[in-house]
Amino acid sequence: MPKIVTGRVITAEGIPVPGIAVTNGRDVVATGGDGSFSVEPFGPFIAVTRPTGWHTDHWFTRLPAGAGDSTEITFELHATEQSLPYQFMHITDTHIDMAAPDRWAFDKGRLTTPDQLKEFLLDLPQLSPASRSVIVTGDLVDNGSPEEFAGLLDAVADAPVPVNLVPGNHDHMHLGRSGRISRNNYIVNDGNPELYEELVGPRWFSYDIAGLHVVVMDWHTHELGLDHTVQEQWLRNDLAAAGDDTPYILCMHDQPGHPVMDRLPRKPLATFSGHWHTSRVVDIDGVLHVNSPTPFFAGLDYSPPMFREVTWDGTGLQLNSRTMPAHYLHNPDHAFDVDKATVAGYDAKSRSSLVRWRHQLAGAGHRAGLTLAGDRIFAGSQIEDRPAGTVEALDAESGRLLWSAATGSAVKTRPVLAGGIVVVAEVSGAVAGLAAATGERLWTTPSTDPYRRFAWQSPVESEGIVVLGDQSDLRALDAATGKVLWRRTDLSPHHNIVTHSSPAIVGSMVMVGFWPTPNSPIAVDLHTGESIWPMPELQDDPWDTARNLRVTGTAAYDDGQDSFLVPAISSTAKLDRKTGSVQWTVQHEGGYSPSTPVITPAGYVVTVTGHGLRMLAKDTGGQLWDATVDGLAPFPMTAYRMKANPVMAAPVFEESTETLLLPGLDGVIRRFDLDGAPEGTYDVGVPLAAPLVAAGGSYLTVGVDGGLLALDLGAGS
Ligand SMILES: [Fe+2]
After folding, report:
1. Do domains 1-80 and 81-275 have the same CATH topology?
2. Residue 197 burial by CB count (10 A; 0-12/13-18/19+): exposed, middle or buried?
3. Which of 103, 450, 468, 643 is deepest in the core (most CB within 10 A)?
4. Confidence band, pLDDT 50/70/90 cuts, at residue 521
5. 1-80: which CATH architecture?
């Protein structure tokens, strides 16, 4: 006879509750008319699916070793208001870190302190009064240590609303961070979930809110293959118990790809995830996939810290994406209203006298900026509250809108003009060819994997060939037709942090430098896709391979020296174009500084995010000067940065005056001479993450609020 665990589900008044789902982590049973259940012991927990209209502080019980016939469990439910519409908050990747303050050298601080999360949760009644629960989709802590879990549990203990925790890969890292290639050719960290179960609780479970079934699963161990079979078995049982008519959402740390989605018993309404530290909202076959950025530091896609309010109205879900208030980002003084800036079209501030004209794009701006081609401007926009974006064409002289074309997801990239066709990459990886004259869609080349492609980098074009993608899936398209001319999927296994930079094209060479793999930049032939530079083998731990040259931005080509200048994490490298060999590397303290170096007669100017500008000698990389920039930016936008600083975009070199113009996240453009001396400032009043584009005597740019600006920069102030 198998052992049996028995128990009851009752109300606070002791009244039995029938028909409530109870699980051992594999089987799902329902309570009978007397509220009783019996289930075989299987995993470490017995958990109850909190039903609509009920809450319980203790929704799971840890089974004692050898639990069996004598084990009796009681779950006590308390009635709770769950009328429609029901709003909850989605946050992710809190990365609670208790390490020494200097561990994250970019900011000389920690990722997220428990106090930051605690304060944020305690403030919810003011910050997000309608949010009635919170879900945190993993990487709750940074190293998976007992101290971090203690900090996390303390931070959520006093939250005014229930906080539901989903495990991520960092939550399973207490034994180390070594990397491996998963069963789906994905670079992941190894992991062990035992400490999480010991200190936090179940890793897969469900609960109901106002008629919506919420399913939580452990992506990391599923991907590693530690327990995907039992997780899927549990899910089938759980969804069967919920009933076919009950809509559900799936919450996992990483966005579920084919290995998860293709095996679901039925489609969810939506999925909610994190892991990438990005903002990405896409619709795939009628399912909404919401990938959210980190709340307390900036994202790998250069999103500012954000959180999402999600409203369930009984039939569908609405998103309200919000930028984290400056108060929580080490910048209490900044008065700029950031709430919807960077996530929706938003008139951030009244016009400055420097603004010749302003056009509001349909969505928010980004760091990619715009393309100026002859007398026309092309720019994309992102709408982060739904799967949508736009490409817009303007008259460069007047700012008059010529056409606007809707896209299926955000456009965080710069459109490229090839012949009479505007080619644009959506964040989903789908590529569209639009008639430059009218915006009419001429062709669409679908994403190779809409679940997993995160197109943050702009396509580049030469000879009518458009190159785009990342090193795990690099494609060349015929700009006229969208036809795929060649495709490389062998340059790297798939990883989440891949698409920081656009390729650089020189002649028929496409230079593709990406982090984290492989360990040296890639050069392939524009026409055939064949490798030009030698490719090193991946080492046993792919992360070790990655640590050599961590390319994070688009290279500049110095034709005078036949060399590439490559922005890498915390460094700049100079590569010989013919061989790809490194000529010199210099270190910077800026961490992720993705801006393309600027080639001037006096030297190379590199942008050190969070710090300022630096000029390097062409032959040696030696530092010629360093200019520090400080100012009151409302939020950070470069990866992992917690403290706001103006410096993010590259400066533009103005040849006529031999000066540099640096746009800032504090809304100020700064002019420097080629000795690094400040020559004046221009207060535009809107945070600028994109570079300036020279247009005759004036400059064009896109503010984070989606305002496309034509600026007359006079002498400055
Ligand atoms: Fe994370």
Report:
1. no
2. middle
3. 468
4. confident
5. Sandwich (2.60)
CA of 95 from ligand 1 middle (Å) equals 7
Query: Which residues are CB-contacts of 87 (< 8 A; sequence separation ≥ 6)?
Result: 128, 130, 131, 132, 309, 310, 311, 312
Least confident window among 44-53, 55-64, 427-436, 538-547: 538-547
Check whether domain 81-275 has CATH 3.20.20.105, yes or no: no
For the segment 435-480, what is each residue's pLDDT rounded down to a tens digit? Answer: 999 999 999 999 988 898 777 789 999 999 999 988 888 999 999 9
In the chain, what are the domain boundaries? 1-80, 81-275
Q: How confident is the model at residue 546 (pLDDT cuts 50, 70, 90)?
A: very low
What is the pLDDT of the chain when averaged over all its residues? 91
Which position has the token pair 């100026």? 372
Across the range 681-694, mean pLDDT stands at 94
Q: How far is the CA of 229 from the centre of ligand 1 (A)?
A: 24
Dist. CA 472 → ligand 1 center (Å): 20
Is residue 259 within 8 A of residue 184, CB to CB? The reply is yes
* pLDDT value of position 204: 98
Report how far ligand 1's centroid is from the alpha carbon of 196 (Å): 16
